[in-house]
Design a protein that fits this description.
This protein is of the alpha/beta class. The chain has two domains: 167 residues, Bacterial extracellular solute-binding protein, family 7 (D-Maltodextrin-Binding Protein, domain 2); 123 residues, D-Maltodextrin-Binding Protein, domain 2, CATH 3.40.190. 50% of the residues lie in helices and 15% in strands. It contains 14 helices and eleven strands. The chain has a six-stranded mixed β-sheet with strand order 7-6-8-5-9-11, sandwiched between helices. Strands 2-1-3-10-4 form a five-stranded mixed β-sheet, sandwiched between helices. Helix 2 runs antiparallel to helix 12 and helix 4 crosses helix 7. It is globular and about 60 Å long.
Length: 335
């Protein structure tokens, strides 16, 4: 009798231990990005990861891979689709193979929106929400930064080895671009000679003379050390920009409702940090670049650039590269 009791007790303890171990199993997730570890976007994403770990009591751990350690943008998006990577933090335009309208609103075409505030208003609109639903349906990817508060910038510049003071100076300029076809078309339309190079290889390409210029957020001119070899920063304001934190939909659906809310709340907090640091660091980093590297900030008349770009929109609509009427639809959503 005693022996039977002991056996039963041991079996109960074993099962309790098995179920306890299962409930405490750690889910590890991979988040990739192109920025370096010291970048303010990295700081914000670390806060997100720390928040998720704390709120889930260690059940979910997010490992961050910086500086394109998991591949360039195209590769990391493929990783997500194939379930090899859980998150990617980058701009909207890289998802245009699945939703063509992202070519327009993600910065592929300059000067669609007039300000960061107007762009955020668009991102919160019903027009954008419809695009995000299509991204889930076509690629199995969900934009989980739902508060749309991940400001990148706070404005964009053209970092060049030679001064660019007008559109004439863009003609024949050897310019680095990402593998985003519409962005390439836009700058070729302005007259640049574009070469597609991974962001993490851009500094070396500038230094070796493979390219003479790169478009980037003003903060990246210092973070990525572009200003060391390209000390002329032309303020282009080519487009308002935000980081989209995107997640594999199957992984998202595998989480409990409580865990999903933790993800969203962590990203909301991270977005506030990202935006605050972007705004605070902009002026500070410009002063540092001027003092340390002798950078010249060049303000230009943007009207000729904007007028020329409006001609590209009409051409692209005629060619079927972008959906006819979508630019107007996006702009109407914020008026």
């Amino acid at each position: 009798m005693v022996k039977r009791f002991l056996c039963t007790a041991m079996a109960v303890l074993f099962l309790c231990g098995a179920f306890s171990g299962a409930s405490e199993a750690v889910v590890r997730m991979k988040l990739g990005m192109k920025m370096t570890e010291s970048h303010h976007e990295s700081v914000a994403l670390r806060h997100f990861a720390d928040y998720v770990k704390e709120q889930t009591k260690g059940e979910i751990v997010i490992d961050i891979f910086y500086a394109e350690a998991l591949g360039d943008s195209k590769k990391q998006i493929e990783n997500m689709i194939n379930g090899l990577q859980d998150f990617y933090a980058e701009g909207y335009s890289f998802y245009d193979p699945y939703v063509p309208e992202f070519r327009v609103v993600g910065g592929g075409i300059p000067y669609v929106f007039e300000s960061n505030e107007q762009f955020r208003k668009y991102l919160l609109s019903d027009v954008q929400q419809e695009l995000e639903k299509r991204l889930i349906e076509k690629a199995g990817l969900r934009i989980v930064s739902r508060d749309k508060n991940w400001l990148r910038g706070p404005y964009r510049v053209l970092a060049s080895k030679h001064p660019v003071r007008s559109l004439d100076d863009v003609k024949g300029l050897k310019l680095r671009m990402a593998s985003a076809p519409l962005s390439v078309k836009s700058w070729e339309f302005l007259g640049a000679a574009v070469t597609v190079i991974p962001y993490s290889e851009t500094y070396l390409a500038l230094k070796q003379g493979t390219v003479d210029a790169v478009t980037c957020p003003v903060t990246d001119a210092l973070y990525q050390k572009f200003c060391e070899v390209a000390p002329y920063l032309t303020v282009t304001h080519e487009y308002a920009q935000q980081v989209a934190v995107v997640m594999n939909e199957r992984r998202y659906q595998s989480l409990t409702p409580e865990q999903r809310e933790i993800i969203h709340e962590g990203l909301r907090q991270g977005g506030e940090i990202c935006t605050r640091m972007a705004l605070e660091s902009g002026e500070k980093l410009v002063r540092e670049m001027k003092d340390k590297y002798g950078v010249e900030m060049i303000e230009i008349d943007l009207k000729p650039w904007q007028e020329k770009m409006s001609g590209l929109v009409a051409d692209l609509e005629q060619q079927g590269v972008i959906p006819a009427g979508f630019v107007k639809k996006a702009q109407d959503a914020v008026r």
